[in-house]
Design a protein that fits this description.
Three copies of one chain form a homotrimer. The first copy, chain A, folds into four domains: about 300 residues, TIM Barrel (Alpha-Beta Barrel), CATH 3.20.20; about 60 residues, no CATH class; about 210 residues, Class I glutamine amidotransferase (GATase) domain (Rossmann fold, 3-Layer(aba) Sandwich); about 60 residues, Golgi alpha-mannosidase II (Immunoglobulin-like, Sandwich), CATH 2.60.40.1180. The first copy, chain A, is an alpha/beta fold. In chain A, the strands form four sheets. In chain A, strands 12, 13, 14, 15, 16, 17, 18, 19, 20, 21 and 22 form an eleven-stranded mixed sheet that branches. A nine-stranded parallel sheet of chain A has the order 7-4-3-2-1-11-10-9-8, covered by helices on one side. Chain A has a five-stranded antiparallel sheet with strand order 23-24-27-25-26, covered by helices on one side. Chain A is built from 17 helices and 27 strands. In chain A, strand 10, helix 11 and strand 11 form a beta-alpha-beta unit. Helices cover about 30% and strands about 20% of the residues of chain A. The relative contact order of chain A is 0.09. At the B-C interface, helix 2 and helix 4 of B face strand 16 of C. Chains A, B, C: Pfam families: Glyco_hydro_42, Glyco_hydro_42C, Glyco_hydro_42M. Chains A, B, C: It catalyses: Hydrolysis of terminal non-reducing beta-D-galactose residues in beta-D-galactosides.
Chain lengths: ~675, ~675, ~675
């Protein structure tokens, strides 16, 4: 449980009373109660208000706010306000301003605007965290600390450059090691002095954001910047812990955000929290996968849904309203995948600046007679009803997909073989196939224990870091099924190619050699032709993007290419290795193939669907103290009938028994607890 | 009349004899006479020539030029030459160079290149205007002053930053007021010192030209830059007026140019002039609307067509030639909408630099035996024939559309709800509907008196400035019809939302409440379904971009949405208010709807078509001393027959009587003066 | 012969042993022998390795490399290593770093990164060339010097600005002449001091890379930067020649690379070499044309194919593998068009940085059992077989197409008439037509002697430099056929329009006057309608992009336009001039037209196809000592039968006789030497 003070699914969100006056606060109190809100995230962007100059701090408004909320039955998620620095600080201490990718010194503006290696930023951010912790350490309203906000963005200033060199020294020990890791004999890049190293951006080694001449330095800069921001987080966290060792600390993450290695971050967080902003056109399996990733960051521990909009966003190209029921549906989707909170950005809409068209529980009209408020209030009641029944429940998946930020960076920075290759999309193809089959699936990091799973999938495992291949071998030899794909096993952690034939360190377990990698133009395809039917796999499937031209070296050839000069050569192989199997999918196949492959593999392991729901209905299971709770989420605009098999369930939301078939209305939700098998 | 010295439609254009030698000048004299040219705009880009250093001025060439032209029967529109500074000035006084949106200090180059807050620029531009005024104040050739050229572009230098702070102090009085207006409690932006404010550009608050984190500062910066350039204009104008109080002063505007608030500018100009450069694919109603806007800048006062090309442009992607007759057709279109001059850029084509492929009366071949020259000469003759008959004639429109630059900035700077929303396009949809119905329509500013109209349309009146709603209420209560649309009444003049329900201050007159604003993806549509036929409105129409989800609160529901979750809710309402009506069009409808709506409303007011001309034929009316002149402009490549009803007309161009039906050749023009009703 | 030490088609490529250790070197030795490799390009990017600081030079590794290679039977193409400077040099002497088009000072990174006007660069590059020349001047392995690498890119720093001003003084003598040439009276640009001139880039006169306000300065800056890099080349070359006057010197060019005037460069090179990187989708006639251009740079002298990939590239969007046989096919295509070497980038694939996915003879797997290695080894054997039989053979084309870099710059910098106009594409349309007809065609510079040809084609000869028109007149009057097109003869070498009617100086020989130039929108077309059939021309053809509206003034009208206002006016004319003819193609026609026109013209001159091969099969002829060798290159994936007529040939690759018909397998090659006519 995140904090035992509030033993239920927390309900609330970001709240900025400092933008309003007393009269509005009274209305807030009334409306929060109407909506069943019990947690408010406060103080997110109040640094300038809290600290008008170097030595003055004003917290009276915050004292009053927290007291008022608490009196009204609302706890607080207390932010440290360091997500955007004050204007006066930027003018007096320009080191706090970032230098951007183009090498331009920025001026005051925006948010997430502080250089992570700025002495000024670190000094005042740390001090602010300390002041807040000291002041509110005993306040009964405080549930959790929320450090800064949506950390992100890179800086390329001279302070960062110096810190980068120090970081490199720490990593490599010697210039010799660095020169080797970066392969600097290429293009006359040998460094004789640490000072010769400059930051890689549009003025030096990179262009277009992710194009680079030297993958080594660019990869390390991503690691370094992720670490630099993490240092800022840790600085505040340590200061908070100094005063309040028992109050949990988090910062809100952003799903598949590309710039930070969240697996590394999650180690420093008591609980993961994240902001979920799908658009009307985001596939719901994409959202599901992202929840699974956030859950996977801390080995399956429940997370916080820190932000979602009750209605519309403002920063998307077309900010469509969430259709009736969809806010509730997506809230429960989060809970189904491991969220123990449902929180919004924002509780009341602001009247000025760029987020005024971002939806809120309380709209500009100011009263409760809106569709959005009514839906929020209804959900609030349901969550009160559910109480603590779902808290701390876990996934019981037997299938896991590996995701790794460093692998992602390696692929994105790669010059060749194809601009069409998108790591996250390839991962999603596998997740989506399992999701459509209603197979419970975890997203895990590359350092995770594989033993708890029966099937582990590592799509485009381009970068194989020390120990990974060995752990896969142990996993497979003990009976697990491992699936990997084209363009895997190519490089080590420095993006240096593993010599001796692709897929490098994965060659032994997969039993194949990839001689060539052919990139297909977007309008071209090859085929994966089954040599004979196998499980659900049969006939021919389209594939594209990249085609590894492989040779089986021990592995069985299950499918071959259907055309081009490598027609007849293997496109799908499986290698028996100890008691298990390792599959190699040599190209990027169509969705139908992946569903057939995943069904075949799951069948072999006896892994079953959560429920055999029709297309468009998602089914997810959480388990708490041995008790299974099954979420049935209808993402379609039509009602759906889901066969329940032999079991009898009770719907936790209605208290009604469900058996044989469960009817779920359009955009509706059922939360089924198994009673018995009849 | 602009200047009684030349009591006819002026005919001529930009002329740069300084680029040529004496022999060519003689040819110019001969050819101008052949073409019927009587006005030449001179000295537009001669600053470097006129002033080789701080203290030296050379005007001998200009003396000779003006004398020569005058001897040849050609008057001058005398420019002040400050549209581009000399290279020496840029090198010696770099403060004259702009800093661009990316924060980069520019170097010498281009034109329209001076920082409006540069002390150097202001000093020397003012002095140049004074020198010219003093020198030519008594020259009989001078018809009008032409200050600088096509003012535009913004600067972001330190001088501008300082001037911006001073401007803000002037506007707001106190930082408290500014902090409130900009809602700076959002994102920790509270300012404690005026010096903390930096200019909003790609280094601070904005990106992509019109994306911003803070609408308040970005909106004010547009106002400030528009004002800064206007200050430069006024500085020169005042200097000119000091010597020649009776010679009119203008500067050439550019239609819907986005960066300057031309309504504010027009107040400082004796006569509006503008440069008209449609492409082959510009709808002719777009050109018509722009003429109407230029006319509307000064309450319907006739304007100057300062520039158009006789044949091709050079800066468009595909610079197609104006087809035979089109130059004449578009010239008369300008006159029909209120132009009292027909002027070209340029009289003779230059041989070097970027405008050498811009068409001219005298082409590179140098003689008169070209299609272009022949057409120019024929038009010159016609204009001599027309004499002063059209001078000072006015529009008698009963319908007006409101256009407001600050509203435009507000919409463009808005983050959400949809990138598909384009204010000028929405305005054009309404203008186009009226234009196709041959309804005479004015374009007016938001501060205009509404009383002279019967129908006033304010599409996407997003920003409602103080007093506007009240003036609309008076207008409607007295019997007028007001039409407004979705996304109206949202904010005040600081882009702060008006609380209490959209459309804010327009809620009373429209009698509706807009609860939600839904943005549609580009490939999606909703429908406006008529509850019952009304006037010309019947059945169902497509709509899209944004759909306001509205409730009638007193207004009558005329049409409802046809699909999605707000199906059956109002999409078109009309509210009786006093003696008049206020319509609310809740989405952006297809063209057919707007024609049917406009016809319905005009019928109610008895507002009739100028003439019932077929599609592709434009009809426009000017009125002088009670005498109507009707322009019939055939924009098609086929001849057309226009029914004239009961009246008998005389065609001013041919002197021939026209009755029953008027035949207009392909790309042809008739200028009809009513003689009698038979 | 490039160097008599190795009297055969050289075979090898770029080799970077400094990236590897001794064990790998041994494998290299073994594998090079297996592959028949006899030349290695070394030391290309070793500056940092060779020179760790100002005064220290390390060449031991290079000594060993060259010795080892030579012992193993491999000669060296010895690079000077100045294509990328060391990091220490950039830090200590920042003048070596470029300022980019945006005006930003770059930091260390990439390659081709040195400012050509940097004193530091010039000093150390020259010294490096001298040290290398002195050290290896007597080494028997050295075949040729390879200066720097792929020169390119422009710099805009202050050193360049100063050098530009000096260059301008040299060119123009006086500011008066410069002001006139640049037409600076336009837009107030008159210069009174050389120091007032700033470099034209995104901060001053240009934007978007090729858009400019002043064509004059932009054109001169391209000339100046091309000259500046050429100065760097000459500095090294002269230093090399000081020690080794008899060893040839080259630098590798890049085909139609836009930034350097290769005709000027080739004059300074002993032999042209170039890097050929077509993609899977590059038309093979485009590659053929580029080979022809490289051959034409030095009047038909054979060139070096310095680089090509044996398999894949890394920097294209989709890096497809060369299909089986294609590497050999394209190698012989190069030889067919005049290459006397077949060389790869690279011999062994690197393991780190951006080119690790660029193909190589030795792949990452490290052994010889790959498709790529096998194909390389087979080609190596064939080239040994061919020995010196093809060395120094020449083209015997009677048709030439003119290409001119300054003309290209003029067209690209032009503001108007159409962004759709692409000079290289227009040239390729003509080359492609001839290529499909199997007509041997040369690509020549604008200063070339025309007398050796019967047909000379100058597509879009926009810029006519002094003497050119006169040379065309002589050529035609003596019986030659000259073909030119729309938008020709417009400007002189300063991009100043030639007054008196287009096509200016070509008006006399073409016998026409182009009154107007109409630009067509991309979806629009006109037609070239034959007045009566003529040769292979008949009926109607589509045309577009630009349509010159022309008048025949002596020329015969062969075709007229089919639509629009210039319907019936000439679209194709031919003018008899002395004993020859000059054609004017007034628009950009479809491919079918150009084939019919070229066939018609070639028939008139009795110019015949090399062989009447079917579509997709290329035929090219080289002649040595009067002996013809015909290359038959099948670019299709099907085998093809080529009729041989009466002659009997021997296939040099198989030694087999060929008569009547020659079968060529898919992607196959025949090299036929004529034995007799049967």
């Amino acid at each position: 449980m995140i904090n035992t003070k509030l033993p239920k699914l927390w309900y609330g969100g970001d709240y900025n009373p400092e933008q309003w006056d007393e009269e509005i606060w009274k209305e807030d109190d009334r409306l929060f109660k109407l909506a069943g809100i019990d947690v408010a995230t406060v103080n997110v962007f109040s640094w300038a208000l809290n600290q008008p100059n170097e030595d003055t701090y004003h917290f009276a408004w915050l004292d009053e706010t927290i007291d008022r909320l608490y009196r009204n039955g609302v706890y607080v998620c207390l932010a440290t306000s360091t997500g955007a620095h004050p204007a006066w600080m930027a003018r007096k201490y320009p080191d706090i301003l970032r230098v951007d990718y183009e090498g331009r010194k920025r001026k005051f503006g925006g948010r997430h605007n502080s250089c992570p290696n700025s002495p000024t930023y670190r000094k005042y951010a740390k001090r602010m965290a300390g002041r807040l912790a000291e002041r509110y350490k005993d306040h009964p309203a405080v549930l959790i600390w929320h450090v800064s906000n949506e950390y992100g963005g890179y800086c390329y200033c001279d302070n960062c450059a110096a810190a980068f060199r120090a970081w490199l020294r720490e990593q490599y020990g010697s210039l010799d090691a660095l020169n080797k890791a970066w392969n600097t004999r290429f293009w006359s890049h040998h460094f004789y002095d640490w000072e010769d190293i400059v930051v890689p951006n549009a003025l030096s080694e990179e262009w277009g954001g992710s194009r680079t001449n030297f993958q080594g330095i660019s990869l390390d800069y991503r690691r370094f910047q992720s670490d630099s921001l993490l240092e800022c987080y840790k600085l505040e966290r340590d200061e908070l812990k100094r005063f309040t060792p028992d109050i949990p600390v988090t910062t809100n993450l952003m799903g598949f955000y590309p710039e930070l290695d969240y697996f590394k971050w999650a180690k420093e967080m008591d609980v993961v929290s994240w902001d979920n902003y799908p658009s009307l056109e985001t596939p719901f399996s994409q959202t599901a996968m992202t929840h699974a990733l956030m859950r996977g960051l801390k080995n399956g521990q429940p997370f916080m849904l820190m932000e979602q909009t009750p209605s519309v966003q403002n920063w998307q190209p077309y900010n469509s309203a969430k259709r009736p029921g969809v806010m509730r549906l997506w809230s429960y989707q989060a809970v189904a995948h491991g969220a123990d909170t449902v929180m919004f950005f924002q509780l009341r809409r602001s009247i000025g600046a760029c987020e005024k068209y971002h939806g809120a529980v309380i709209e500009h009209v100011g009263h409760e007679h809106t569709r959005v408020f009514r839906e929020c209030a209804e959900l609030g009641k349901e969550l009160q009803l559910l109480g603590d029944r779902l808290l701390d429940a876990r996934s019981d998946a037997k299938v896991a997909i590996i995701f790794d930020w460093e692998n992602r960076w390696g692929i994105e920075l790669s010059s060749g073989p194809s601009v069409a290759l998108n790591y996250v999309e390839e991962v999603h193809k596998y997740y989506d196939a399992l999701h459509r089959l209603h197979i419970q699936t975890d997203m895990i990091g590359v350092e995770e224990h594989l033993e708890r799973y029966e099937v582990v999938i590592a799509p485009v495992m381009y970068m194989v870091k020390p120990g990974f291949a060995e752990r896969v071998e142990v996993f497979v030899s003990r009976g697990g099924t491992f699936v990997t794909t084209f363009f895997s096993g190519i490089v080590n952690e420095h993006d240096l190619v593993t010599l001796g034939g692709y897929p490098g360190k994965l060659r032994k377990v997969t039993g194949i050699w990839a001689e060539e990698i052919d990139a297909l133009f977007p309008d071209r395809h090859n085929q994966m032709v089954m040599r004979s039917p196998r499980g659900h796999l049969e006939g021919s499937y389209n594939c594209g993007i990249l085609c590894d031209v492989i040779h089986a070296e021990g592995a069985e050839v299950v499918a071959e290419y259907g055309s081009d000069y490598y027609r007849g050569m293997p496109s799908l192989t499986v290698n028996r290795f100890g008691k298990g199997k390792a599959w190699y999918v040599a190209s990027s196949p169509e969705a139908r193939f992946l569903q057939d492959l995943m069904r075949t593999i799951c069948d072999e392991h006896g892994i079953e669907a959560v429920l055999n729901a029709p297309c468009g209905v998602e089914t997810v299971r959480r388990v708490k103290d041995g008790q299974e709770v099954t979420f049935v989420l209808n993402h379609t605009a039509e009602s759906a009938a889901v066969p329940l098999g032999d079991a009898v369930y009770i719907d936790l939301l209605t208290g009604r028994e469900q058996q044989v078939t469960c009817e779920v209305p359009a955009h509706g939700v059922r939360i089924l607890q198994k009673l018995s098998v009849h």
